[in-house]
């Protein structure tokens, strides 16, 4: 929303039941639930209020149990249980009865009311089945309006004196929410701004109007989640230990299948799903340039059967086919494989751990930022399989991350030495090693520069090609990725 002339947010109802939260938050929560939870599943609405969200989910076919301090005013038709969230005895009794029961647990505008948010998250987790989903929302104290309020008065919006009267006692910033979830056994964490916050808010409350305009003008210098009156969080309970914040073998497969089912843009599905087209086009361009130049310089014969691991929507199948090879794609996502086959390519659904090919039948196997996304045990078996299916003299062509400090839960990078050792110990020899993806500007530019990504990528586009020309066929500690070509010994 760009403009609003309302003095306050309008009251909203669902089936005659008052929505005791921003109605846009309810919309976002329901959309997330429908995306991840099949209808007919069991859902716990913890902190249900009058029951507007409980009734809405019940109408969609979910089996809902609603929980709040008292039943007075509860109007939904779902099952209700009274519980005081700050009473340990009541909470323990409830958890004993409902442990590992629900496919999803929802807490809309509740966590800011509890005395111990960490314990609150653990309690909700206890109610979830393994791989169940948690959906939360809370006021966004990093919005531009809240920051302007804090700058002048030293208090976050929605956590002032009047707000304490109705229980707002615990402001939680998005990065703190992510930290709590990641350290209490949740993965696939996603935080999104939500709720009503117009860019220009003109109302009879002069202070509110001025704060919003002032905050919006300063928002160009702000980091983190600066939009949204509130924000939502979704996270999945892990049934296995995956090592810190990294995804397990099962979780990474779910992650990529979901990316392909949810992402419309072909390039975003295989590069950075949350980035715009120009951002992904930059990485695609330097990858194509690096591979084409390396193959030309080593005198590569463009003929034979080529397997592209993690083929996605067919980006590299098109590349190899244009150069005279006979490409075959492999991906764990049925949606991605179907898309490739519809485009006229040959693609199979399968795992890198067990390639569906006879021994020594392929001339080339390519992995362009694919193996970096596989957990260590999967990566080791995948490398063995690559070596197995290659003919003597066949090439393994990879662009993979060598940035060992990548914090992303779906990235499992190796150092350049570790990549080389992993292939060489299986009878391969390196014929080309070249650093690229330096991101010099983006890694050093002041992040509060307006339109940061677009400015950084535009400058990096020039810098990257200059560096790749100057440091041709050279490894670099400054490079975040390396192009590696290995040849199977005769």
Structural features:
single chain; 490 residues; alpha/beta; Rossmann fold; seven-stranded mixed sheet; 38% helix
**What is the CA-based Rg, rounded?**
26 Å
Mean pLDDT figure? 85
Number of structural domains: 2
Strand order of the largest sheet: 6-5-4-7-8-11-9
Fraction in helix: 25-40%
**N-to-C span:** 64 Å
Which overall shape is indicated by the principal axes computed on the Cα atoms? globular
Q: Approximately what portion of the residues adopt beta-strand conformation?
A: 15-25%
Which architecture of the largest domain does the CATH hierarchy give at level 2?
A: 3-Layer(aba) Sandwich
Structural commentary:
This protein is α/β, with parallel strands linked by helices and 490 residues long. It has 2 domains: 3-239, Rossmann fold (3-Layer(aba) Sandwich), CATH 3.40.50; 266-488, Rossmann fold, CATH 3.40.50. Helices cover 38% and strands 22% of the residues. Strand 7, helix 4 and strand 8 (128-139) form a beta-alpha-beta unit. The longest helix is centred in the middle third of the chain and has 21 residues, at 277-297. The termini are far apart.
């Amino acid at each position: 929303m760009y403009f609003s002339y309302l003095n306050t947010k309008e009251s909203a109802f669902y089936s005659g039941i008052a929505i005791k939260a921003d109605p846009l938050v309810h919309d976002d929560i329901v959309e997330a639930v429908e995306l991840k939870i099949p209808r007919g599943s069991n859902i716990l609405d913890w902190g249900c209020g009058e029951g507007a969200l409980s009734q809405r989910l019940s109408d969609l076919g979910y089996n809902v149990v609603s929980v709040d301090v008292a039943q007075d005013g509860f109007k939904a038709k779902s099952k209700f249980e009274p519980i005081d969230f700050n009473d340990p005895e009541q909470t323990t009794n409830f958890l004993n009865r409902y442990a590992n029961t629900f496919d999803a647990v929802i807490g809309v505008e509740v966590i800011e009311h509890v005395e111990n948010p960490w314990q609150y998250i653990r309690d909700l987790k206890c109610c979830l089945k393994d791989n169940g989903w948690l959906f939360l929302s809370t006021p966004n104290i990093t919005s531009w309006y809240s920051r302007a309020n804090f700058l002048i008065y030293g208090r976050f919006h929605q956590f002032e004196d009047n707000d304490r009267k109705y229980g707002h006692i615990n402001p939680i910033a998005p990065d703190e929410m992510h930290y709590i979830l990641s350290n209490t056994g949740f993965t696939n964490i996603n935080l999104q701004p939500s709720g009503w916050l117009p860019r220009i808010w003109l109302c009879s409350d002069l202070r509110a109007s001025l704060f919003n305009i002032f905050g919006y003008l300063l928002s160009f210098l702000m980091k983190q989640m600066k939009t949204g009156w509130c924000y939502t969080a979704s996270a999945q309970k892990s049934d296995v230990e995956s090592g810190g914040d990294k995804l397990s073998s099962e979780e990474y497969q779910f992650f990529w299948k979901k990316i392909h089912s949810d992402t419309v843009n072909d390039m975003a599905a295989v590069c950075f799903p949350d980035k715009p087209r120009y951002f992904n086009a930059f990485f695609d361009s330097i990858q194509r340039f690096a591979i084409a130049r390396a193959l030309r310089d080593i005198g590569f014969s463009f003929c034979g059967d080529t397997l592209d691991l993690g083929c996605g929507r067919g980006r590299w199948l098109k590349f190899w086919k244009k150069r005279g090879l006979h490409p075959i794609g492999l991906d764990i996502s049925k949606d991605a494989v179907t898309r490739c086959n519809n485009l006229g390519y040959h693609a199979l659904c399968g795992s890198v751990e067990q390639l569906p090919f006879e021994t020594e039948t392929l001339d080339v196997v390519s992995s362009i930022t694919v193996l970096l996304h596989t957990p260590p045990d999967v990566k080791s078996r995948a490398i063995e399989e690559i070596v197995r299916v290659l003919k003597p003299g066949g090439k393994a062509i990879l662009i993979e991350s060598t940035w060992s400090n990548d914090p992303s839960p779906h990235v499992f990078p190796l150092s350049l030495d570790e990549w080389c050792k992993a292939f060489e110990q299986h009878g391969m020899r390196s014929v080309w090693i070249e650093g690229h993806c330096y991101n010099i500007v983006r890694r050093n530019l002041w992040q509060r520069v307006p339109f940061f990504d677009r400015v950084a990528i535009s400058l990096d586009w020039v810098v990257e090609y200059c560096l790749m020309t100057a440091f041709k066929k050279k490894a670099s500690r400054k490079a975040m990725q390396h192009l590696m070509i290995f040849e199977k010994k005769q």
